[in-house]
Structure formats: C-alpha cells, structure tokens
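so my prof wants the structure for this chain in the tokens format not the other one, which i didnt know existed until like an hour ago. anyway here's the sequence
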Amino acid sequence: MFNFEDANRKSKEAVDTMLKNYSDTAKGFQAIASEAAEYSKKSFQDAVSHFETLSGVKSFEAAFELQSSYAKSSYEAFVAEATKLGEMYADLAKNAYKPYETPMTAAAVKVSKAAPVTPAAA
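here's what i got, hopefully its the right format
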C-alpha cells in the first residue's frame, strides 16, 4: 500500500539535496568567475607594465628580447591558469554529481536485478 508519509519524507529529502547541490554549484561557479576575473586583471596589469617598459627601450635587440620574455611568461601564466580553471571545473562537476551517485547506483542495481537476461536474437 502507498504510504504518503514515506513519500512526503523522500520528497523532502530530494528537495533538500537538490537545494544544497544548487547552492554548492553556485558557489563553485562564483569561485571560477572570481578566479577568471583576478587572472584577467593581473594579465592586463602585466601587459600595461610591459608596454610601458617596451616604450622606453632604445634598441631593436633589447625590444625583441623584452618582447620574447614577455610572450614566454605570458604564455606560461595562461597555461597555468587554464589548468587551474580546468581543475576547478572538474571538481565542480564531481561535487555536483556526488549527491546523485548513491541513488543512481542503487537504481541501476535494482534495474539489473529486475530485468531478465535474455540472449540476443541472431
């Protein structure tokens, strides 16, 4: 027989889990946005500083060396930041899936036990 109290309790648990997951996901996206904004700000400041230094250079060789050094450090900083953001997105995805992992596994076990195994038709 259908038990309304159990259904109500399970429904409340599901809503609570969803709201907590939504809150954690929003915090994760906020952290990613904050990190991206900080990187953009630092990158812009580094570029301005570089061009100020570059404008004071007297020889082509010094300008070329300065530009090469800036390009290398800028590329390394970008790769490091992209790696960091990638890890943040991966962690966000893992954390968003975590509350649903146990119920999904339990459901898959139930389905696999309930479904009879029949050989494929040839």
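also thought this was worth mentioning. Helices lie at 4-55, 60-114.
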